[in-house]
Amino acid sequence: MSVAKVTEIISSSKKSFEDAVEKGIERANKTLSNVRGAWIAEQQVKVDKGKIAEYRVTMRVTFVIKD
Length: 67
What we know:
The chain is of the alpha+beta class and 67 residues long. It has one helix at 17-31; strands at 3-13, 35-48, 51-65.
C-alpha cells in the first residue's frame, strides 16, 4: 500500500499556461520525490497596459511518500 500527499504550487510563464504548467512540474520534481500527477486548480493572467504580461497557474501536485 502506498500513501500520497498533495501540495499546492503556483507557477508562471510569459509564454503560455502550458509553459507555466511545465515549469511548475519541472520545479516540483527538483524538490519532491515520486511525483505522480497534478491538476490545475486555477488559471490567471497578469495584464499590463491592456496586454497579457504573464500566465499563472495554481496546481495541486500529488507525490507518493516513501516508507
